[in-house]
Design goal:
This protein is mainly α and about 350 residues long. It is about 65% helix and about 5% strand.
Length: about 350
């Protein structure tokens, strides 16, 4: 990840504070080595960009194939390989230290890298036969909620804590796995190629949630740890304050649809539990099995299969409408099940 070389006299960093514990103790670990890792210059920058591009492209292919194959192992592998989390952490560090040049460079790196992963997902989807529906791995990344925001905040805090202490390299793979960055972008490309733009928007919202949460919480951790512009650079301090306000505001705005999604998920679960007895009563003693059923507002979709045809859903619609307290429409999909038997004698 790009970052700027700094020597021991770098005025943008507060001097280490002796004593303390926890995040405050991380001040003792701040110094040129930390900044060199975050902001390489010259040949180091070129190598960093090359490595970033190659690894991110490979992670994009791994994530796309893993999403199509519904392979959790492949998706986790993509998250470990992808260097996108390091780029986002560098953006937070640039914001906190007032490095305007690197703010734009890291932001461009994140945006261009993200577009590359979306393009990879779109391109791979062009040559793979269209699935009958989204795999569970794809579907899981199209409807983010507040729990995803919580995971991103905790993961971002862990990554920033490791960065300032420089003693937790063993924790970095865990941080990479915990927060989902590349798989949502690959999902955006796949869903766009499939013409499922609502799902693509949901996956993009998940990525933006993780991006905003990591930047905001990492800035907070860095500030608490003592990474601040020098007092002589008041202009940078003002920029830091404005950047934190803007990042926090974007996080709050993003949290609104997440809260809506979470509330909708809870409502679906509650209505699903409340409506299950009515569905069982509607089936009665018929030879039918409920393959799937879902509730979305006043829409109820039921898929059944069996040897017997399903009954008229009108009574079920009336019962559910009374239970839900609003007009309800029941959609029933029936797949006949035919049984045959044969016997033979020697």
């Amino acid at each position: 990840m790009p970052h700027v070389d700094a020597d021991a006299t770098d005025p943008t960093i507060v001097s280490p504070v002796p004593g303390g514990s926890g995040l405050a103790d991380a001040r003792q670990s701040l110094g040129p080595a930390v900044l060199d890792d975050l902001f390489p210059e010259g040949p180091g920058l070129r190598r960093s960009l090359q490595t970033y591009t190659v690894l991110l492209a490979l992670a994009g292919f791994i994530a796309t194939f893993g999403l199509y194959a519904d392979s959790v192992a492949a998706i986790i592998g993509a998250m470990v390989v992808a260097p996108l989390g390091g780029a986002i952490m560098a953006l937070a560090a640039a914001l906190v230290t007032g490095r305007t040049r690197w703010q734009w460079l890291t932001l461009a790196q994140i945006v261009l890298g993200g577009l590359m992963v979306v393009a990879i997902g779109f391109g791979v989807s062009l040559v793979i036969p269209d699935p009958l529906g989204l795999t569970p791995s794809l579907d899981a990344r199209t409807f983010p909620g507040l729990l995803d925001l919580g995971v991103a905040l905790a993961s971002g805090a862990a990554g920033a804590y490791v960065a300032v202490r420089r003693t937790g390299t063993d924790a970095l793979p865990g941080v990479a796995i915990a927060v989902s960055l590349v798989p949502p972008l690959a999902t955006v490309g796949i869903c766009m190629e499939l013409g499922r733009f609502d799902d693509a928007g949901g996956a993009l919202l998940l990525f933006l949630t993780n991006l905003s949460a990591i930047v905001v919480i990492a800035c907070v951790v860095f500030v608490v740890a003592g990474v601040l512009p020098d007092r002589a650079h008041l202009r940078e301090r003002h920029r830091l304050r404005n950047a934190l306000i803007a990042a926090t505001a974007s996080l709050v705005i993003i949290a609104i649809p997440l809260a809506w999604n979470s509330a909708e998920s809870v409502m679906r679960a509650v209505r699903g539990t409340a409506g299950a007895p009515y569905v069982e009563e509607w089936i009665g003693d018929r030879d039918l099995v409920v393959v799937s059923w879902s509730v979305s507002g006043g829409d109820v979709r039921i898929s059944v299969t069996g040897a017997d045809a399903p009954p008229d859903p009108s009574s079920l619609a009336r019962d559910l409408a009374q239970e839900f307290g609003e007009p309800t429409t029941v959609h029933v999909t029936y797949a006949p099940l035919e049984r045959t038997e044969a016997s033979a004698a020697p």
